[in-house]
Amino acid sequence: MTRQPWRVAVVGGGIAGLAAAVRLRDRAPAGTEITVYEQSGALGGKLRTGELAGQPVEFGAESFLMRDPTGAESAAVALARRLGLAERIVHPTVGQAALVVDGGLRPIPGGTLVGVPGDLDRVATVARPAVDADTDGGRPLVGPDADVSVGALVRSRFGDEVVDRLVDPMLGGVYAGRADDLSLVTTMPALARAARVEHTLVGAVRAAQAAAPRAPGAPVFGTLVGGLSTLVEAAVTASGATIRRDAAVRELTATDTGWRLTVGPTRDPEFVDVDAVVLAVPARPAARLLAGPAPEAAVGVGELDYASVALVTMALPQPRLPELSGFLVPSTEGLLIKAATFFTTKWGHLRRPDGLAVVRASVGRYGEEAQLQRPDADLAATVHRELSAVLGTPLPAPVDGHVQRWGGALPQYAPGHADRLAAARTALRAAHPTVALAGAGYDGVGIPVCVRSGETAAEEIITALGGSAR
């Protein structure tokens, strides 16, 4: 057992790193010294609440799932409860979204799993499924250890239109990636588990849906009054950690007693000795830090690629908007926008008596980063023009606006990601059990997944250092 008090470094001040810090404070021995190192000046990672036209607006992640895949309370809800924020949770007042099909809006059909239908008749309004392709071949759709792209599986069973018009925009809204490139196991784990048993894709979708039943009327998503940055601020306070902003960790070196961090500029480095490290940074920075002490793990981690996006938010005076939460745009429509959210329609607590509407559009798909090189004003003008075209009516000029660029924000999990990560973690634990990985680059996107990833990493560190004293 290492000497007391423990000293633990959390590298990365996003929600995964902060969740790790809170869990360390809750479970590690009293007196444990926790320091969070954040390369930028802002904590929270992709959780960032700003202000537009005098009210809070999310410039990053907008909401979190209320339930986990088992139907239990999600890790994000549990963290909000732990931080005393449960009473601030609110839910969408308008849940219906649409797809852009042939230039117009059509409601997203129900009964799908991230766009993959469990009833082919219900999707006929937006896509024509292939006829008689989803036949029972006498064996499971996917082998016991296999992984395939979502697009490859769905195309083979339902045809191109279902992928291009339904699945691709749904996955694109979450990952900014393509269904043909994204891992079934990582992006749709429930469907992957069912596909290892079921012989048809319709059967697999229905089995996955049955395995995670939702009570009728139960909210799927939630957010916090005041913005998601309140979760960040409360986590910082509860963790009791020392927060180091603008503190880039450039090197990680194993010592006889733990780890030495090289922090800050090359010409004036600071050296910090700690007992354990939670690496809550994206895959490539993590791979660079692990290259010296754990080269095998570094190779597996560093293969992950990322997509960049921009979020264009506008405050519009009394526009004519449909009673929708927003819409998704298939890439086949040829628009720059890939998704739009009508914030002040979707979230009742954001509605204003003066009729000012806040609309946010997401721009940028994997492999199309050149589109994001446009100046902010050009992006905003293009978004305004495309929104007007989709809605079929000219939108008023915005009275306020904001462009938030997220470079390398969204992991692109290629088939085999889960196996590569498992091998990297196995190698890391064998060689250096006092280093743990946490975040979206490893375990999936979404606030609950990142919170759970950070908490799990903290538990691994506590175990490696000798167990909890509480």
Polypeptide structure, described:
- With 470 residues, the chain is an alpha+beta fold.
- The chain has helices spanning 15-27, 75-82, 150-158, 160-175, 184-187, 189-195, 201-211, 229-239, 283-290, 295-302, 343-346, 376-391, 417-431, 440-443, 447-465, and strands at 7-11, 33-37, 49-52, 55-58, 64-65, 89-90, 97-101, 104-107, 112-113, 116-117, 221-224, 242-244, 249-254, 259-263, 270-274, 276-279, 305-317, 326-328, 337-342, 356-363, 400-412, 435-437.
- Strands 8-7-18-19-20-17-21 form a seven-stranded mixed β-sheet. A five-stranded parallel β-sheet has the order 12-2-1-16-22. Strands 5-11-6 form a three-stranded antiparallel β-sheet, covered by helices on one side.
- Strand 18 and strand 19 form a beta hairpin.
- The radius of gyration is 23 Å and the shape is globular.
